[in-house]
Design a protein that fits this description.
The complex is a heterodimer. Chain A is an alpha+beta fold. Chain A is 18% helix and 35% strand. Chain A is built from 8 helices and 20 strands. In chain A, strand 12 and strand 13 form a beta hairpin. The longest helix of chain A is centred in the first third of the chain and has 10 residues. The two termini of chain A are 39 Å apart. By secondary structure, chain B is an alpha+beta fold. In chain B, a hairpin with a 3-residue loop joins strand 6 and strand 7. Strand 1 of chain A pairs antiparallel with strand 7 of chain B, so a sheet runs across the interface. Chain A: It comes from Deinococcus arenicola.
Chain lengths: 361, 120
Amino acid sequence: MTQTPESTPEPTLKRTPLHAAHLRAGARMVPFGGWDMPVQYAGLKAEHDAVRSSAGMFDVSHMGEFRVTGPGALAFLQGVTTNDVSKLRPGRAHYNWLPGEAGGLIDDIYIYMVAPDEYLLVVNAGNIDKDWAHLQKHLAGHDLNLVNESDQWALLAVQGPKTVELLQPFSDTDLAAKKKNAYFAAKLFGFDVMLARTGYTGEDGFEVFVGAAEAETLWDKLLTAGITPAGLGARDTLRLEAGFPLYGHEFSDTIHPLSSTYTWVVKDKEHLGRAHITAAPLQKLIGLKLERVPVREGYPVYADDVQVGVVTSGSSSPTLGHPIAMALVDATHAESDSFEVEVRGKRHAAEKIGLPFYRGA
Amino acid sequence: MNTPPELKYAASHEWLSPDGTVGISDFAQDQLGDVVYVELPEVGREVSAGDTIAVVESVKTASDIYAPASGTITAINDELSSNPEKVNESPYEGGWLFKMDVTEASADLMDAEKYAETAE
């Protein structure tokens, strides 16, 4: 028996401030984007179900945080992103893209407006160095400070329908009153943290920015509050059910980001790589449902006996009980309703399903 | 970790019983996590030890299963098509994968004690 993914051990893996806490919780650790990260604790399905029915927490400290401060911050961010940063207000956050000069995406990111002339960018772990170099390259002429704070912060995502109920007793802030994408300072178990009502699971929840030195104690408090630790395995099945693209799978330096349904991320403004973004995508990202056979990234997708695309993410869906996948297919075939996916030399029927596969309450 | 002494084990975590039944070890099922799909060989197929002849899929990964012996496939566990979780629940009994008419077992198979040491 050999497992295909999750291989290629990397030379020196970085550790988040919660590494010891993961080992104590019985995590199975795997290399991910240069980090030694928990893929699961008790079991993927149990963790997935905890997030759908109650609340789970993910260590996402490996993600990067860049702070942009100064009078030139807004103009700079407007020039390197596709969404309209001028629409943000202090205490609000939004999803955004860093388009490449030659097409594709450098990264997909979240931007939090801290105060006038101050923004926090949260970027994908595997893209920290690339994003940093890219942003540095375009700083010239802008009056601002760009600081990489990635090592200062631990980031915990507490996700699930019972998040507010379970956290409220330990915070003096009225959590239920906070809107989606709110970003605010709060006390949580006596710690000064920044909370954002955001997530990547399709459920309600908060992402918790806490100082690296305090992260482990906070993690232990969250455990005692009844939050289930959940690993990267569940994070991936949850985001796939919720139809969220993942950089390196649905987005990349070469994939046209408007292949996805996230067309709202591109606003009418001037920015880097605008010509590529406004060109019509040649492919479309679709959702597929299979009867029984799980399909995985890289499997060929057929329509009318011709290969028209490839699976970008695929898994058995713990919530729905059948395999689901996202696939990039030729735009000319994207309107078909039925496809086939080749699995180990045999083609299996796949039905096109509108994304997301699952919508939380 | 449960390793019944009457079985022989491959380094790739398959077990072979004296009557030619093949499955995956308790260690393997635990490493895989929740099994959601099993693809089994056709009855009558002749295989050589080390051939890839089945696939066990968990939620996240597909794992190849290698023949622990040369011979002919004589039966497959049909129940796994509707209840693949049997591989997790009962890796040495209800979760067996297939049976073979063994002509020659792989020379590299280990007894339970040795396998238990390597799979720690």
